[in-house]
Amino acid sequence: MDFALTREQRFFKEQVSRMLEHIARPFADAIDKSDNFPIGVFLELGRLGYYGIRYPEELGGMNADCTTFTIFAEELARASMGLAAIATMQCLMGTDFIHRFGNDEQKKRCLIPAIKGEKIGTIAFTEPDCGSDLGGIRTRAVKNDKGYLLIGRKLWITNGDVADFVTVAASTDPDKRLGGIGFFLIEKGTPGFSVGQKIEKISARGAATVELIFDECQIPAENLMGEEGKGAQYLNDILSEIRIMIAGLGLGLSKSAFSAGLRYAREREAFGRSIGEFQLIQEKIAEMEVRIKASEFLTYHAAWLKDKGSLTGKEAAMAKLYSTETACFVVDEVSRIHGAYGLAEEYPAQRYFRDGRFLLFGGGTSEILKTIIAKDTMKKSEFDIT
After folding, report:
1. Where are the beta strands (DSSP E) in the chain?
2. Neighbours of 203 (CB within 10 A)
3. What is the pLDDT of residues 304-316, one digit of tens each?
4. Which fold has domain 121-228?
5. 109: which DSSP letter?
6. Residue closest to 225 by CA, chosen among 162, 181, 176
């Protein structure tokens, strides 16, 4: 088994790392403290073409594979989790449905400008009483002679306050639950569409999460993305890629936090020597190193399988579960290595600690992922010798 990065992928990783070291990493603390959308960095990523990383060259994209996109996600998270949340939404969830199902005019009006960073897209399926249970959404899409009338609320929508367009999950038939879900394109300025409350959160700051309100929002029939009732299937088609991407974010955060912990352990002295010489600190360092390496293998193995066309949902779920839980473990250990300074704003340890929590929920909670993995394993396991 060999899923090492190709020469081109290694070059891409070095290129992105240098770029973010210049335009993003020095401003990570400022983005976190201000909690303002980093418009300058956002525009620069668009100018450089990174929002089209997954899309065909004829649309202005790079036509890159899943492994390359995962590299991008990892490097973004190493620089700034807030920026990573913003940019990956723009690259994947916020634009994918238009790419797959939008007509030429919609692509010209929304997708191509989004790839350039001239417009911002997002996706909305989470509701106040609905997260993992997509079949329980209450937002309705009522068909009429003008198209569809959308009625409902969405919550925890990344980039929702600045989005120029949003892909909205709504039910055309609540009795069918998952079989009644559709996705609809809503553009800024559509009557009945408005931004509600902003959720003040402790992590991934700079990437605002807000409520979106659809108060009898009339849209034309062509704004249905794909077919009625197939929304859950469409979302499932990209769910594994979403989970691999989030695993990449977890890996990037783990590496960045680990680097800060190592630096502090080498520099901080107690009892006449660096604290990194004490056995219990070394134990933490060893445990973090092992878990990060395991996360890296799981994450890039899943991306490699995706690129080969042999990925199952289980491998993506495993990568997301392990990488994000490892990130939370690492940021906690790094905070402990810093001692009381782990609470001080002058050190990034406190930001890493807060950002780790952001990774646990999108793409499936750890509890949901464990259920998916267990159900698949009960059917068939490569380790079953009975």
Report:
1. 121-124, 140-144, 147-158, 165-171, 181-187, 193-199, 209-219, 224-225, 269-270, 273-274
2. 19
3. 999 999 998 999 9
4. Butyryl-CoA Dehydrogenase, subunit A; domain 2 (2.40.110)
5. I
6. 181
pLDDT tens digits, residue range 43-63?
999 999 999 999 999 999 999
Q: How far is CA 135 from CA 122, 156, 306, 376, in A?
A: 20, 17, 26, 21
The whole-number pLDDT of residue 118 equals 98
DSSP assignment, residue 51? Answer: G
Pairwise CA distance, residues 23 & 283, whole Å:
35
Of the options 3.30.470.20, 1.10.10.10, 3.40.50.20, 1.10.540.10, the CATH number for the domain spanning 7-115: 1.10.540.10
Instruction: Indicate the fold that domain 232-379 takes in CATH.
Output: Butyryl-CoA Dehydrogenase, subunit A; domain 3 (1.20.140)
pTM for this predicted structure: 0.95
Mean pLDDT of 103-124: 97
pLDDT at 386 over 70: no
